[in-house]
Amino acid sequence: MQASRHSHFRLHSWLGLNLGLLLFIVCLSGTIATLSAEIDWLFNPGLRVSGATGAPPEWNRWYRAIQAAHPEALVTAVSAPQAVGWAATATIASDTGGGRLVLVHPDTAAVRGTISEFTVTRFFRSFHKQFYIYPGALPHGVYLVGSLGLVLIGSVVSALLFYRMRWKDALLRQRSRNPRTFWSTLHRATGLWTALFSLLFAVTGVWYLYERIAIDSGLVGESVVASSPNVHAAHITPPIDLDGAVELARQQVPQLDVRTIFVRWGEWPLLTLVGQTDVWLVRDAANRVVVDPIRREVVSASHAGDLSLGVRLGHTMDPLHFGNFAGLGVKLLWFVAGLLISLSILVGVRIWSLRIGARRTPLPGAGPTVLSMAGTFAVLALTTYGSVVNIGASVAPAAGVSLVPAYVWLVVGGFLVVIFAATAWWVLALVRR
Predict the structure, then answer these.
(1) How far is CA 329 from CA 28, 34, 163, 323, 325, in A?
(2) Are residues 398 and 121 in contact, defined by beta-carbon separation less than 8 angstroms?
(3) Any idea what DSSP says for residue 244?
(4) CA 188 vs CA 5, 44, 126, 152, 307: distances in Å
(5) d(CA 345, CA 328)
(6) How many domains, the chain?
(7) In the structure, what pLDDT confidence band is assigned to residue 400 with cuts at 50, 70 and 90?
(8) In this structure, is residue 29 part of a structural domain?
(9) Is 359 within the bounds of a domain?
(10) pLDDT tens-digit profile of 314-325?
(11) pLDDT higher than threshold 60 for residue 230
(12) What whole-number distance in Å separates Cα of residue 213 and Cα of residue 219?
């Protein structure tokens, strides 16, 4: 029994020391991604709407206002406000390439501003999903991030198997002036309180890995709601009746609350309407209706309640992973849990550093290898390269950096400073062994 507990401890230590830095970066970026939309709303006055009535969406009115403000561009998506007090948003594309976001007052249809698609939300969702490593010469970044879900599962399970969990640990009742005892108690407490959240985040992360494998192996098709528009044909685009499309969609899915309408331009436009119904805990794409705006007919329709178990589970993972299924309160709970998990990872490294300092000798098998350090820095290098390339591609074509609000650079820059500081601290802790 004692030997088994020791093996679990060694596994827990090995995972934390060799892969802890990458796991910390994933957890912290996911934590911020949970409230990234709220961060944009808080710092961007164009997204905040005072005195909004919460009236039903006026899709055609918004669409015409956007066209009038940007006659040179094509509207590729229109989204209803996330909640009362939020602006409606639209994505547009033009000859300059890239995309821009147009912010619209939901009641007056007044255009409140146009910004780059590079927002806090976009950065942290892309970073957390795949470390900005896009498919090409290298595999999709989801393979790396999803695999770290397995690491988190192993870390939680191994800890539960070797720690003697007590309520006084969870309530931080154990008092000690010894730094190692203090940090160990804190590590146990955060681990206990967040164990279920850790497993939830890990399992949903592994599901994304499974989805990526299934897509790349051809077992399932990748979901696509809109293709790249033919911008040069903007001056001959036919009129689009979005309100009429919503009515057609509700004939097929009566309870559909349309949240976003995607517009696929080309020789024959198509509209894809997604949103929520009476089926709980699914992302908007689970309820989808494709409408032909020229013939005024429904091309296809799907309701979350009619999906197979596997497909339904896939549409449930996003709400579970980010907590965006029951309002701001749940998202705040997910955010706090993510912060505690991120803190617990760093505290674990601190405990190891103190233990090594006390023994003057490294724990057998627990020290990180040169290979793991090299692999970690290789991933960070790829992430840095991918971030520069892909952020540049989304910013430069859209009239340059001027369309990116200053707060976006500050938030992203602050996150990167934390990551670099954590990396430096981690390396210093390792070289002391």
Answers:
(1) 19, 12, 32, 9, 10
(2) no
(3) H
(4) 16, 39, 31, 15, 41
(5) 26
(6) 1
(7) low
(8) yes
(9) yes
(10) 999 999 999 999
(11) no
(12) 8
